[in-house]
Amino acid sequence: MEFSSKLLENAVNEMSQLPGIGKRTALRLVLHLLRQPKEQSFLLAGALQKVREEINFCKSCHNISDQELCEICTNPMRKKELICVVEDIRDVMAIESTGSFKGLYHVLGGKISPMDGIGPQDLNIEALVERVKSGAIKELIFAMSPTMEGDTTNFYIFKQIQDFDVTTSTIARGIAAGNELEYADEVTLGRSIIDRVPFEASLKL
Amino acid sequence: MEFSSKLLENAVNEMSQLPGIGKRTALRLVLHLLRQPKEQSFLLAGALQKVREEINFCKSCHNISDQELCEICTNPMRKKELICVVEDIRDVMAIESTGSFKGLYHVLGGKISPMDGIGPQDLNIEALVERVKSGAIKELIFAMSPTMEGDTTNFYIFKQIQDFDVTTSTIARGIAAGNELEYADEVTLGRSIIDRVPFEASLKL
């Protein structure tokens, strides 16, 4: 791609560093910004600069936060002995939006993935083990995505903390609400039969 | 979507103003930036700010340029009496990459589209008419996209300049190189038969 302007070329190159955005899309986005009032570009540039410069991670759960401790960790209504282990902040947002979880979180910041060169030392696993060692935690819920990497991460953490007095569980795998049974994959359907729940318990939800 | 950080929320909101980028994609992009070295965000923010602040449009053809006149307009090898009228800079880049055009351009900056509230006064049409009036132009090539809006724009410009001593043409519609004839739409195939070219002329390309 040949550009008639170095400034434009530079902006397109930087924009196309983002995942899923190629040179053509980047050019489309930058040209869109050029057609909008200047303020829009300045607000975007400012917001990106500020978020990267000033962002904090909660000291306890590693969730993104503007304070030292996030709002969830400092909320006195949450059960401090119940920890949900998730991959990143998007999972926290997804679980929070269900309103079904009243404990705290621990954000690992990724999952163990040798293919991508991500090992346990790159994640916030040590901090989690410390939290367990401190004795304040009664149950860990593993809420990683049900993939090979997610399962590996769960198992690695489990091995680190199995000698401590803490219960571990994983989120239930099963047929999603509204899905047709016949289109479910075998693994999920099999798990949903093995992990069946008493009918009366299911009525309470 | 509930965010645990105002900074993050702000960045996601600004990012999701871009066309084709929703809140979820914006969150994914911002989280990606947070995982990368700070420099990447700063370079992106800086490039966006700089391009919007300092971008120039060529005084003559309205192409994006770092100088007052773009490299194409100042190139003594280009034919100054032949003008290709295009919608935006991406079309200039596409035509330049063919190497088949040795004239100058005129970038309209959009096309007449009443549905989107874009009228002739929002485009660089007046400047084009002035260029034609000055008498230095012998031929205008309309290279708008073959859509309703493109055709409307072509016709509007044609009406404005038809009394002047200038030839007008449009780029040829026809079967694209490498395409199967049977899958071409009727309009295109019909035009390609009406606008057929002498076989010997086609051999020269």
TrEMBL record, chains A, B:
| Keyword Transferase belongs to the record | no
Q: Where are the zinc fingers (C4-type)?
A: 58-73
Do you know which CDD domains this protein is assigned to? TOPRIM_recR (cd01025)
Give yes or no: UniProt keyword Ion transport: no
Please give one Pfam family short name. RecR_ZnF
Domain Toprim intervals? 81-176
One GO term in the molecular function aspect is:
zinc ion binding
Q: Name one GO biological process term.
A: DNA repair
Q: Which InterPro entries match?
A: DNA_Rcmb_RecR, Rcmb_RecR, Rcmb_RecR_Znf, TOPRIM_dom, TOPRIM_RecR
UniProtKB keywords: DNA damage, DNA recombination, DNA repair, Metal-binding, Zinc, Zinc-finger
HAMAP family, alphabetized: RecR
Q: What does this protein do?
A: May play a role in DNA repair. It seems to be involved in an RecBC-independent recombinational process of DNA repair. It may act with RecF and RecO.
Q: Which family does it belong to?
A: Belongs to the RecR family.
Q: What is this protein called?
A: Recombination protein RecR
Q: Which organism is it from?
A: Winogradskyella jejuensis
